Amino acid sequence: MTAESSRTETSPPWRWRGVGPALAIVAIGGGLALRLVAPSPLWLDEALSVNIARLAPADMVDALRHDGHPALYYLLLGWWMDLFGESDFAVRALSAVFSLLTVPVLWAITRRHGARLAGATVLVALTSPYLVRFGTEARMYALLALLVALGWLAIDRALERPTGVRLVAVAVVSAALVHTHYWSFWVIGAALGILAWTGWVAGRVEPGLRRACRLVGASVAAGAASFAVWLGVFLDQLGSTGTPWADRARPAEIAVETI
Description:
Layout: H1 3-10, H2 14-17, H3 19-37, H4 44-53, H5 57-64, H6 72-84, H7 88-110, H8 115-126, H9 129-134, H10 141-160, H11 164-178, H12 184-201, H13 207-225, H14 231-240, H15 251-258
Helix pairs in contact: 4-6, 7-8, 7-10, 10-11, 10-13, 11-13, 12-13
């Protein structure tokens, strides 16, 4: 018996190799759908999202002066509601779309390292409590996860070949991040730090990589700088929003919770 025939006999038929992942995807997708249609009313923050999203853009800005978030998610939710209505299912479905779109983006990031890693990444993403839970809430967190994944992919591609289109993509995603949630500034800061470190260390042996890191870092910073148009509203929010029931956190506590 040859090695080839032995391998053929012991290996499962090709048509069965994808059955496990496919069943997992179907099961998880079904669970997501059941959670979406579950008869649970919108909770307070979700209802607030809907109320703000109903407003015209100018009125939305005034309303957000007393909220604690930027405007991008509310604008998108408002357009979504114009198309699909304001039922609990409809307003939550936008987040489900964001969560599901995150999965192929993560696959695109990891596929260059092998099909097995890409498949494992997809499975982890589909079973992620974060993506499942926030994929069924009318809040901006699923959009945030999608934008982080898109930013990772955009930076990865721009470092390979820093063309104008790819650098613009990095800037656009960076801008979308800071206009979705203020937590994004931690991501922006981490990305800039990693780019600076990579350019300094690896750039000594690969001058082209150092240049790419500089260009990509400039694109990230340019996108984040678009937050300047929202700065006035942000300063108003600092004085009128927050969690009055909570004690002020010390810097060390914030650092520990972040880690």
